[in-house]
């Protein structure tokens, strides 16, 4: 696939011409929204998550035939799982063109109370997964001469995490650095690597885990006075994943309502 190609959502009869995107952490929340958005934009999507039954439900909802959406279980802490996901995409659709490293895990915890095991567990999911994904898919994309990698960072990685644990904030800070490292090393192979760093998002999981009074306080501290849109984040991911985004590389696009300004 040439980097100058314009992608358009083909009809069902043209499903074989759709580019292929792999999305981690697609079980729920932002990952699910990203899968739905990319599929709507004309991608065949391999949705991955730690719980196969959940991502399979999403795949079945979008395309029961399995021709344009499929699901596989991936533990992002294991490099071999990324290799297996890539192999599944190649076997099913003949290749892959986009990787979205979305999988993450947060935990609110005072920094002095974090145990070594807890620190390692959070960092492994949020940072190791991005490293393994960029390494496995980046090598494949470079060999093919084209690829797009979009990493999901976080405001916490930029401001130290005022509402999350230090382990999560540290890992997300590392995501920004890895994005630059892989962007530099893979650019010559026709591969771009970028990050999107959202602030607090308007997602069901937020309302499930944050008390109503605290949530109102969070909104009050956001200059625009509202939570971010997961749909807009997903549209931004799709923009960075497009062939037309060839000149965007090593960037981190902040979408946080003005909580962090450069």
UniProtKB/TrEMBL annotation:
What SUPFAM superfamilies does this protein map onto?
NAD(P)-binding Rossmann-fold domains
| The organism's place on the tree of life at top rank | Bacteria
Q: PROSITE patterns from the xrefs?
A: ADH_SHORT
InterPro entries, per the entry:
NAD(P)-bd_dom_sf (IPR036291), Sc_DH/Rdtase_CS (IPR020904), SDR (IPR050259), SDR_fam (IPR002347)
A matching Pfam family: adh_short_C2
Family membership: Belongs to the short-chain dehydrogenases/reductases (SDR) family.
What is the name attached to this protein's record?
A: SDR family NAD(P)-dependent oxidoreductase
Species name: Arthrobacter ginkgonis
Taxonomic lineage: Bacteria, Bacillati, Actinomycetota, Actinomycetes, Micrococcales
């Amino acid at each position: 696939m040439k980097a100058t190609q314009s992608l358009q959502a083909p009809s069902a009869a043209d499903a074989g011409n759709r580019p292929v995107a792999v999305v981690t952490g697609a079980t729920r929340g932002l990952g699910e929204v990203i899968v739905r958005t990319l599929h709507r934009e004309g991608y065949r999507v391999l949705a991955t998550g730690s719980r196969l039954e959940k991502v399979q439900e999403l795949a079945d909802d979008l395309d029961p035939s399995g021709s344009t959406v499929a699901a596989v279980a991936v533990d992002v802490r294991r490099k071999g799982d990324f290799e297996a996901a890539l192999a599944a995409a190649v076997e099913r659709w003949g290749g892959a063109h986009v990787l979205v490293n979305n999988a993450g895990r947060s935990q609110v915890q005072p920094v002095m109370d974090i145990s070594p095991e807890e620190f390692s567990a959070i960092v492994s999911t949020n940072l190791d997964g991005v490293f393994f994904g960029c390494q496995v898919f980046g090598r494949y994309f470079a060999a093919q001469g084209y690829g797009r990698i979009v990493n999901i960072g976080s405001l916490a990685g930029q401001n130290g995490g005022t509402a999350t644990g230090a382990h999560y904030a540290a890992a997300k800070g590392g995501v920004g650095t890895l994005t630059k490292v892989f962007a530099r090393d893979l650019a010559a192979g026709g591969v771009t690597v970028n990050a999107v760093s959202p602030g607090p998002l308007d997602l069901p999981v937020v309302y499930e885990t944050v008390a109503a009074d605290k949530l109102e306080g969070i909104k009050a501290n956001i200059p625009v006075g509202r939570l971010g849109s997961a749909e807009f984040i997903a549209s931004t991911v799709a923009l960075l994943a497009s062939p037309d985004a060839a000149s965007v590389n090593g960037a981190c696009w902040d979408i946080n309502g003005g909580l962090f300004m450069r």
